[in-house]
Amino acid sequence: MFDNFPLWPDRASTAASNVDALFVFLLIVSGLMTALIFAALIYFAARYRRRRGVLAEQIEGSTPLELTWSIIPLFVFMVIFAWGAVVYFKGRTPPRDSTEVYVVAKQWMWKLEHAEGQREINELHVPVGRDVKLIMTSQDVIHSFYVPAFRMKQDVLPGRYTVAWFRATKPGTYHLFCAEYCGTQHSGMIGSIIVQEPAQYEAWMSGGTTGPLSATGEKIFAELGCVTCHRTDSQGRGPNLQGVFGKPVQLEDGRILTVDENYIRESILDPGAKVVKGFKPVMPTFQGLVSEEQLNALVAFVKSQSQPGPGGPKTAAAPQNQAPAEGSQVQ
Amino acid sequence: MSMATATAQPAGQTIERENYLNKHYGVGSWLFTTDHKRIALLYLISITFFFFIGGFFALLIRLELLTPAGDLVQADSYNKLFTMHGMVMVFFFLIPSIPAVLGNFLVPMMIGAKDLAFPRINLLSWYLYIIGGAMMMHCMLTGGVDTGWTFYTPFSTAFTNTKIVEAGLAIFVAGFSSILTGLNFVVTIHRMRAPGMTWSRLPLFIWAHYATSIIQILGTPVIAITIVLVAVERALHLGIFDPKLGGDPLLFQHLFWFYSHPAVYIMILPSMGVVTEIIACFSRKRIFGYSFVAFSSIAIAVFGFLVWAHHMFVAGISVYAALIFSLLSYAVAVPSAVKVFNWTATLYKGSIHYDAPMLYAFGFLGLFTMGGLTGLFLACLGIDVHVTDTYFVVAHFHYIMVGGALMGYLGGLHFWWPKISGRLYPEGWARLAALIVFIGFNLTFFPQFILGYLGMPRRYYQYPQEFQVLNVLSTAGATVLGVGYLLPMIYFLWSMRYGKPAPDNPWNAAGLEWKTPSPPTTFNFEQEPIVTWEAYNYDELDTGHKEEVKVVG
Amino acid sequence: MSDNTLIGLHHEEQHRPELLHHFATEEQQRNSASLGMWIFLATEVMFFGGLFCAYLIYRRWYFEDFGAASKSINATLGATNTAVLICSSLTVVLAIWAAQTSRRVLLIGMLVLTMLFGLAFLGIKGVEYKDKFEEHHVPGASFSFNQVPIPGHPDQYANPQHAQIFFSLYFIMTGLHALHMIIGLGLFTWLLVMAWRGRFTPEYYTPLEMGGLYWHFVDIVWIYLFPLLYLIDRHP
Fold first, then answer.
1. Whole-number pLDDT of residue A309
2. Domain assignment present for C10
């Protein structure tokens, strides 16, 4: 509306239109309901105001009326629920071929690292029209990654990964807020999402990098000695990690789970928790020996071992026990 | 505190009739009373005190938010302000308010009893509240807490340096006050109804307080144990909620919200009970759909326990859990909607009087409807992702708690003031105050819906420039609202000395409490009443005889 | 005015001194006390319930580590304590029967015996806590649980962090329970004094019943705690 007095946020992602449509629907429904009730209230208040000689009429009630105005709202609510559920489900299911960005939140800043290796602080450059998946964790307390223009928000937790995704549709610079109170500078933990045309984005990308995150991960993998047990000739004391990401694996106790980011992370920090069947529980823990960024790099490396080549990630097989057809949910 | 309560006498002569206020004098007679009416007044004074403390914090918050920069207070101070505003208002004002003041005063009278089932436990309740309140005051004066009233882990257990344990213990103690009040009400309502007072003849105020008490009894212990766990974890550096030590921060959130969601129903159900009584009286007719209103109170209490994780849709719970909690949240909305329809339908073919209590009731109807409808937005998963943790939520809950619960509380205070004090408040000023509150409230909180959808997060003391105009509007409204709250404080006090003496039943209202003198004697009834009439017998009250009650449709 | 007839209670009616003024009859007073105590016990169920909830969740997640930790607490002492509490509930019931049948000596004897059982329970608990303290299993700065094998997997060690969660919950749950025992002992001291003064008759023994309900509740909480805490994954 006005430049410095907006009444509606920018719409800059595919999700934004979905959310706005739902919101407008709810505005209409609520508006109608409010209008109806207010009209009844005002009309009754005027029409039935106290008048001399006119008595109130005692009415017990009306069961049919009660049922009607219980069932109709319930039906409307179910429609709202269903539509909202669909929008939410889409929002929590990143598409399979998303570009990945690792996010580490800490009091009071956002540290981001693209899979290709670029690092950013409080800023995220993304190209228009590309699916971007954020794999996020916190170094300390709970934060929340919130981009109003994308209608996207996801809490960022210490000790595990949470995931969010978006596809930007309009170039521009948009607010990034921390939306979960995290201490003194909570309101200062803000930044920008910079959406660029693809050409501009490529230009920005080529402006200096330390190499892809997975390459960093490969270095750490060697430095920490992981490679001594996790050999690619399957002769090692640990499982061969090639091709393992996204596939189901059986644990010692019989459970089957899918290898995802959280499982890799957990295996590094608490290796005894979910040991693969057929292997002894001899892996030492690296808790306290790796930072969040190093963990991200290691995860990226293991994922890269399941891709046909460097670059765009493709998970090898659809994960079992996870409902969505496209992509995986890291929950 | 002496009240000259005049009975009608020839000019020049007034006899002070003995009532619960003048029966005994002296501080001791108040501090060691077991009379539920005196205890209600003790609560009235205490919660008003905390209301103004919490309100003062709100004023500072709104002043800071006049400008985008953080220039009035420092970041840490601001964080303490909104935390203390929340804790004081939730635990020391809203949760006790109507049950402890109006409930304590009226529940025995409405059912025809001499007192609550456990008068000494009632007094203990008040003392626990005072002790908890004193601990909270001490905590605030010696540094306060900065975690937000929700004190999420691991920030509250392992990162903040503020006085979590002390604040937690204060709330723990106050929680027992709430539990004991609820316990007292349930036993009283079950066991001490006068002969002839069947369940279906109970005023809906009683049904509302019964439902509220169930929540107080079953929910409060869970926050109590959560506070214990947080305090122990903080003191001994345990890892129950700390992921660095193998714990789960989401477990805290589940335990916290398992109480704190039903808690909001503790705050609104009594207000709905008050509004029901007022609408019936000032329309001069029975509430439309008595049984539906009664059972919807119980339904709200039961369903209210099943929806807690709708506060956690983006917290990291599974998609499937989110779906279930969203669905259940819509279920709990239905009984509230039913009540609004029933109240509106009560006005149909009524004979409506516009006294101050009724103005507050109208205000409640409008504001609670709006607040409740915005709850539908928040229960909707797709929208909640965008608006949770923003000013949209802040606006929603203030519409319900202030626009709903507080309006009902004020309306009830006005309605029963003649009974409580034996005095009439000044009607003109009261109507003005109701209007000021309504206008001020909307101006304060409506802009916050817009701010929320725009994306302004909550608990921010500095914000981007484009949010300023709406924030200024909100602060302007807050000053108007403040005036609206000061007025009743002033004229209620004024009326205690200068107000016209009140007759026993100034509103010609239905209900056993109106059959006692204003103010009542210590034991309420000279003789135990025997009830032979239905609730809301306005036909008899207005015409002297029973009318046939219609059933429409 | 309208059809409200008020019929009075005759104040000259004699009533027993135990009848409090705001109640109409002794039966009403007794029923109110009973309902009140049951509701209070419901709040206690919810209070402990939060702890049980946390415990069940972590036990499912860290079953093996919890198994290792559970093995290190003394199930024999725990079982003894269970027997002690069950006996004490029996003595409580006998005390109430004694009051109902005007057996003053038996009443006082059973109350004393109940309290002795309670003290025995606390004593045994104290021994257990002392053992844990000496083994450095008390959570906090000096906690240590290194290289403790998981039951059934002698080559695998339990995660000390997860074990510490077990012990945290163990101490909080049994500690809260012990606190309730101590309060119960205080209650029963008061009941003992009243019984000594001859306050309980076949017509009036409500405080005994209420105290008894409380005691039974504390007993039942232990009956849940014992298998949950002490008997995880025990092998013969």
1. 52
2. no
Could you give the number of structural domains in chain C?
Answer: 1
pLDDT digits (tens, 9 = 90+) for C151-170: 888 888 899 999 999 999 99
When CB atoms are compared, the residue of B249, B337, B366 closest to A157 is: B249
Q: Hey, which chains touch C, using 3+ CB pairs under 8 Å?
A: A, B
On whether any CB of chain B is under 8 Å from the CB of A186, the answer is: yes
Mutate to test the interface with A, among B385, B451, B459 (most CBs of A within 10 A): B385
Domains of chain A: 8-45+62-211 (2.60.40.420), 213-304 (1.10.760.10)
What per-residue confidence (pLDDT) applies to C2?
37
| Residue C17 counted as domain residue | no
B218: chain C residues, CB-CB within 8 Å: 42-43, 46
Q: What's the domain range around B521?
A: 32-543
Amino acid A3: pLDDT: 59
Mean pLDDT score, C52-65 = 94
> For position C167, which CATH number holds?
1.20.120.80
Mean pLDDT of C16-30: 87
Q: Is A272 within 8 Å of C155 when comparing Cβ atoms?
A: no
Q: Does B538 touch chain A (CB under 8 A)?
A: yes
Q: How confident is the model at residue C5 (pLDDT cuts 50, 70, 90)?
A: very low
Q: How many structural domains compose chain B?
A: 1
Which of B148, B284, B341 faces A56 most closely, judged by CB atoms? B284
SS (H, E, C) chain C: CCCCCCCCCCCCCCCCCCCCCCCCCHHHHHHHHHHHHHHHHHHHHHHHHHHHHHHHHHHHHCHHHHHHHHHCCCHHHHHHHHHHHHHHHHHHHHHHHHHHCCCHHHHHHHHHHHHHHHHHHHHHHHHHHHHHHHCCCCCCCCCCCCCCEECCEEEEECCHHHHHHHHHHHHHHHHHHHHHHHHHHHHHHHHHHHHHCCCCECCECHHHHHHHHHHHHHHHHHHHHHHHHHCCCCCC
Query: Is position B343 within any domain?
Result: yes
Question: For residue B134, is it within any domain?
Answer: yes
pLDDT of B191 reads 96
| Residue B118 to residue C57, Cβ atoms within 8 A | no
Q: How far is C153 from chain B (nearest CA, A)?
A: 21
Q: Is residue B333 part of a domain?
A: yes
Q: Which pLDDT value is given to residue A308?
A: 66
Q: Is the pLDDT of residue C74 over 80?
A: yes
Contact yes or no for C24 and B246 at CB 8 A? no
Rounded-to-integer distance, Cα C196 and Cα C199, Å: 8
User: Domain for residue C21, yes or no?
Assistant: no
pTM equals 0.92
C-chain residue closest to A281, CA distance: C156
In contact, B115 and B104? CB cutoff 8 Å: no
The parent domain of residue C187 ranges over 26-137+144-230
Which of B114, B180, B223, B225 is best to mutate for the C interface (most C CBs within 10 A)? B225
Per the structure block, which two tokens stand in for A240? Answer: 């061969």
The three-state secondary structure class of B34 is coil
- Of B75, B314, B465, nearest to A154 by CB-CB distance is B314
What's residue A331's pLDDT? Answer: 43
pLDDT beneath 70: ranges in chain A: 1-4, 208-209, 308-331
Per-10-residue mean pLDDT of chain B, 553 residues long, equals: 42 66 90 96 97 96 94 94 97 97 97 96 98 97 96 94 96 97 97 95 97 97 97 92 93 97 97 98 95 97 97 96 97 96 96 96 96 97 97 98 96 97 96 96 97 97 94 96 95 95 95 94 91 91 74 53
Whose CA is closest to C192, among C84, C116, C90? C116
Phi, psi of A135 (to 5 degrees): -110, 115
Residue B4 maps to a domain: no
Residue A295 forms contact with B (CB below 8 Å): no
Q: What CATH number corresponds to the domain at position B446? A: 1.20.210.10
Contact call for C161 and B530, based on CB within 8 A = no
